[in-house]
UniProtKB/TrEMBL annotation:
One of its GO terms (molecular function) is DNA-binding transcription factor activity. Pfam families: Aminotran_1_2, GntR. The keyword Endoplasmic reticulum does not apply. Keywords: Aminotransferase, DNA-binding, Pyridoxal phosphate, Transcription, Transcription regulation, Transferase. This is PLP-dependent aminotransferase family protein. In the C-terminal section; belongs to the class-I pyridoxal-phosphate-dependent aminotransferase family. Residues 19-87 form the HTH gntR-type domain. The keyword Transcription applies. InterPro entries: Aminotransferase_I/II_large, HTH_trans_reg/aminotransferase, PyrdxlP-dep_Trfase, PyrdxlP-dep_Trfase_major, Tscrpt_reg_HTH_GntR, WH-like_DNA-bd_sf, WH_DNA-bd_sf. PROSITE patterns: HTH_GNTR (PS50949).
């Protein structure tokens, strides 16, 4: 760290072209100390080392250090070196050294592009990603970190060079092969490893497929309500979005211009939780074949179904289906892993692989290899089974709280026994955004349902995530939320306590 001081000083000396070298160096060091670049109480490099790094004589540095000592910027400790003062004298803080180092310039206005302004105008990503009741947040404390670290340590002892350079092959082969086997068994996905591309989450996957397969102005269908993150990416890439309503059977196709893409969450619709019926699945596949469209299947939360049979993927329903299947480990493991994947038809595998390498310069092959081994050894399925049981218990506990203290009418009729959140149904006309804001002020994090609609709707509700909340935390937070609902004038069922 100390040797970086010289790099900083060499850069700053360029702003002082006049004066003796000794005076210029003194001014730069004064400014660095006042600004905190050289931390208070820190040790300066020995004069001999500083002179060598700066390429100047040691006498020049000695004179500068002596001046700094005399002015109170630093202190000399016999046998211990030169140390920056913990507290600078007032006269030092009034120094004009920092002003001398500022190049004359006129501040540029922060002018955004139309695309940038549009993106920020629709930004809804929350800074709150943990606690009651953050939707979609898994309990990351339950992940077997020690086991995963052991797998990583073993594999990383002597990594080959191909795992330390950019990836142009669509991701680590070990992970792609493990995923192909897992998806074939668990989700009825029909694909081999060459059809799988590893991405940094679903957002990158959406960006990739829309960049390569759509042109600006192309029409795409999206569920209404739907995931705002996908919607913002589609806007950013210049696509025309048509919001298609969702009923108890999933997305409702409407007549009109054929779409280039259809974005759906068929196994567990986000955020309402309904399942896309078999009839609708076949209708979508027929539409896509007829118009040479692509169905983008986001298999959101498919692993966490707590009762009944799991629904197979839309991709595996028909041979050579016009479906691009997307998945992620953000919910099953932890979000900061930033590993997702897409399964693409064979004719798209090579173009998308080349495009991904061109756009994103893939990497993280060491952790991908460890994840592939984690899956291959069966730990991934063991973890999912354990978390499915835990999340099912937490969901049941939250449902009982709602029924007991608010009433059964507050449980949305479209909630299904799956996922990491449920929708708390609210009366039409209430302000779910204001209620969510009041809850946040009291430490409870919920999302208003109305923000998931592209167009104004009468539906109102709150998304309550239960996965990362134990029963004690859930009960305490629910009491706060109930108080917010009552304060907003929401009438509780007469049968509730």
């Amino acid at each position: 760290m100390q040797l970086l001081y010289a790099d900083h000083l060499l850069a700053r000396l360029q702003f002082l072209p006049s004066g003796s070298l000794q005076q210029r160096l003194l001014t730069c060091m004064q400014a660095a100390i006042i600004e905190g670049v050289f931390p208070r109480g820190g040790r300066l490099p020995p004069t001999r080392d500083m002179a060598r790094e700066l390429g100047v004589s040691r006498n020049t540095v000695l004179h500068v250090y002596e001046s700094l000592i005399a002015q109170g910027y630093v202190t000399a400790r016999t046998g211990s070196g030169t140390w920056i003062a913990e507290t600078l004298p007032e006269i030092c803080l009034q120094s004009h050294a920092t002003d001398l180092l500022q190049p004359a310039s006129t501040p540029l206005p922060a002018t955004l592009s139309k695309r940038g302004a549009m993106l920020l105008g629709h930004a809804t990503a929350s800074p709150y990603q943990w606690g009651a009741f953050v939707p979609g947040a898994p309990d990351v404390t339950e992940f077997p970190h020690k086991l995963f670290s052991q797998i990583q340590a073993k594999l990383n002892r002597d990594p080959d060079v191909y795992r330390l350079i950019y990836s142009s092959g669509g991701g680590c082969p070990d992970l792609r092969h493990a995923l192909a086997e897992y998806l074939r068994v668990a989700r009825s996905v029909k694909a081999d490893a060459d059809q799988i591309l590893i991405t940094e989450g679903v957002h990158q996957a959406v960006d990739l497929v829309t960049c390569v397969l759509c042109d600006p102005g192309d029409l795409v269908w999206m569920e209404e309500p739907g995931y705002w993150g996908t919607r913002n990416l589609l806007r950013k890439n210049g696509l025309k979005i048509r919001a298609m309503p969702v009923d108890n059977e999933g997305i409702v196709p409407k007549p009109g211009l054929p779409p280039r893409m259809v974005f759906v969450t068929p196994s567990h619709q986000y955020p309402l939780g309904v399942h896309l019926s078999l009839a609708r699945r076949k209708a979508l596949l027929a539409l896509a074949r007829r118009h040479q469209s692509w169905i983008i299947e986001d298999d959101y939360d498919s692993e966490f179904r707590f009762s009944g049979q799991p629904y197979p993927s839309l991709q595996g329903l028909e041979a050579d289906a016009p479906v691009i299947y997307m998945g992620t480990f953000s919910k099953t493991l932890y979000p900061a892993l930033r590993i997702g994947y897409i399964v693409v038809p064979k004719m798209l595998a090579e173009p998308l692989r080349i495009a991904a390498a061109e756009l994103y310069r893939g990497g993280h092959l060491l952790i991908q290899r460890a994840l592939g081994e984690f899956i291959r050894q069966g730990h991934y399925m063991d973890h999912i089974r354990r978390m499915r049981l835990l999340y099912g218990q937490r969901r049941q506990f939250l449902c009982k709280l709602i029924e007991r203290y608010l009433g059964p009418s507050f449980l949305s009729p479209v909630n299904h026994d799956a996922g990491l959140h449920l929708v708390l149904h609210l009366p039409s006309g209430c302000d779910d955004v204001a209620i969510a804001a009041q809850a946040l002020k009291r430490g409870v994090k919920v999302r208003p349902l109305s923000q998931y609609y592209m167009h104004p709707q009468s539906s109102r509700g709150l998304l309550l995530g239960y996965a990362c909340v134990n029963e004690r935390q859930c009960q305490d937070a629910f009491g706060v939320l109930k108080g917010c609902l009552i304060a907003a004038g929401i009438q509780i069922d007469a049968s509730a306590k």
